[in-house]
Amino acid sequence: MVKNVVFDLGGVLVDLNPAKVIKQYFSKEDADFILSNIFFSKEWREVDRGVLTPDEAFHKYKDDIAPGAYEKLMDIIENWNEHMPPFDDVYALVKRVKSSGAKVYLLSNIPPYIHKMFGCVPALALLDGFVASCDVKLLKPEREIYEHLLQKYNLKAEESIFIDDTLENVEGARAVGMKAHHFANHDLAALEAALRECGVNI
């Protein structure tokens, strides 16, 4: 029986949509370059890991976009928390999970702006604990980050379910013995069914 429900952040608790955001602020040419070369690049992952700042990772691209665009981009990335609105329907589900008696945790690949989000994402106030990649210098789907979460909060893998919108991260959780659900296409009904199947009384 599952006693611990572990959520990802972007794409699960909040709306992560770089294409929508970047296209609002930049010309088509610059937006296409930024989305192709910066977001979810290998450098982006090192920002998530907490070993590079955005400027250290992306300064080499400064002259590839219009004058002033790089500075605007750095400001947006440093304050990306302002561009990820929470999903109200998932928040309602998190409240039901908490009411069922299960513990609620967060495991996210995310830069340090995670710490700015606790005042603006209601679901985060319900957490029993969290692990952010930038704090531990580890990334999903690396085995060690799941093990860190389990050890930090003394959780049993077989009593825990992990929810993520990225399949490889789901598979990483399963590799350490956790149950896991791929939250694809914001299919809330499928997620609810998976939680009930694991014994979460929602």
Terminal Cα span: 14 Å
Low-confidence stretches: none
* Percentage of residues in strands: 5-15%
Radius of gyration, taken over Cα atoms and rounded to an integer in Å? 17 Å
Number of helices: 10
Shape: elongated
Can you give the helix content as a percent range?
Answer: 40-55%
Q: Structural class given helices, strands, pairing?
A: alpha/beta
Features:
alpha/beta, Rossmann fold, five-stranded parallel β-sheet
Description:
By secondary structure, this protein is of the alpha/beta class. It folds into 2 domains: 4-15 and 86-197, HAD superfamily/HAD-like (Rossmann fold, 3-Layer(aba) Sandwich); 18-83, no CATH class. The protein has helices at residues 18-25, 28-37, 42-49, 54-58, 69-78, 88-99, 133-136, 143-152, 167-175, 188-197, and strands at residues 4-7, 103-108, 129-132, 160-164, 179-182. The chain has a 5-stranded parallel beta sheet with strand order 3-2-1-4-5, sandwiched between helices. Strand 4, helix 9 and strand 5 (179-182) form a beta-alpha-beta unit. Helix 1 (18-25) packs antiparallel against helix 2. The relative contact order is 0.18. The model has no long low-confidence stretch (mean pLDDT 96).
How does the SSE layout of this entry go?
Elements: E1 4-7, H1 18-25, H2 28-37, H3 42-49, H4 54-58, H5 69-78, H6 88-99, E2 103-108, E3 129-132, H7 133-136, H8 143-152, E4 160-164, H9 167-175, E5 179-182, H10 188-197
Parallel strand pairs: 1-2, 1-4, 2-3, 4-5
Helix pairs in contact: 1-2
In brief:
The chain is 43% helix and 11% strand.
